[in-house]
Design a protein that fits this description.
single chain, alpha+beta, Ubiquitin-like (UB roll), Creatine Kinase, Chain A, domain 2, 2 domains, about 35% helix
Length: about 450
Amino acid sequence: MHALGVATVEDAERLVQASTLSHIKVGLSDVDGVMLGKYIRRDKFLSALRGGLAFCDVVFGWDLDDQLYDNTKYTGWHTAYPDAKLRIVPSTGRRLPLEQGPGGEDMLLFLAEFEGPAAEICPRRLLHRTLDRAADMGFEVYAALEYEFFMFRETPHSVRAKHYRDMENWTPGNFGYSMLRSTVQGDFYRKLLDMCERMDMPIEGLHTETGPGVLEAAIAVDQAAAAGDKAFLFKTFTKALAQQNGLMATFMAKWSHDHPGQSGHIHLSLRERKSGRSAFYDESQPHGMSATQTAFMAGVQRYLPEFMALYAQTINSYSRLVPGYWAPLDATWGMENRTTALRLIPGSDKSQRVEVRIGSADANPYLALSAALASGLHGIEQGLKPEPMVQGNAYTQQFPAHLRLPTTLWEAAQRLRESEAARHLFGDAFVEHYAATREWEERQFRRHVTDWELARYFEII
């Protein structure tokens, strides 16, 4: 429970009734991890806290550009885009300091999730079904996500006027961990840190990364349900804060071939619900790695090629996965090894964990978390053993074909569609719908001619 003290419907009712706000904001996640939603008048909001909302299911029927899918079964012209039932989640209520009501009171924001048939493809519900699975196995899950994102001195209008070329970076050159940059640009840093504190998604560490105007933010660890919400909120409102300050933040996986891509790493650990002890730490074993963590790591590794579409969900995601740019190419693991897809981080009862390094910043945090956790839990259920631990630079080594990761979104979608494990863990409805949306995305890309093709072929071929 966060700073507002909202845990139940009754808590949310008291908060809204004491408010001077005429409308409350409600947000939800589509399959791409984009926050959609609306303002709701307070009387309707109070009614919806107990009775739910009707919300058009087109949010699962269109893409990032509001173009309607023609290949999905769940919704489309064949269903006439009916309303689906949306449940407001009281415990997600928080203040939104980026906007105020007429009386100067900070806006109230609540997250929501779908019920009924729509719940089968709702990203937030997918994560919570996976967390229920963990609880049934006797585990409590903790997670922390960290994001890299580039900042520009641009606006939504200016980038379009420039056709996304010759954009002005927030700061020039490479300057990782720069104290100079963070001091000179301290006003924005303070605004970002303050916003995240006030919205109950505190940043544990914030610094410049290698590249012009790139930052990395590590969100503090929490129970995985809250961690998913915090990552989802962080991406949306970091972009909103930037635009309010004449800047733009992008979480694209790779916006330029001249610079490294942007990651969305996931740190995961399990604790035993009965004893409260770490399920990952065993001081008697090498690197403190318990049998449970070993099997968990093996599960994530085993199913990473099949679940890749959940970690890398856009065409652009696969531009990041090239040698030498801090992005793994195979389903590998190593101890404190930043060239592998999975990094064992040895520590103590409190800190022993695994870092899933394959994901890009553009991934839907609910889906990426679900993929990592579900595959790890399945590894425990099956008693899997990981492949040999990688020593040294994984980029220069050859690995068995079954560890090779998909190299395109189309391939990743096919691997997901064909995965028996995915259907077992996530359900047929989700797998069919999500794979179809990724196939649609690939088809939209194929309809376009790129600048690279023009420059390469126009005159010479």
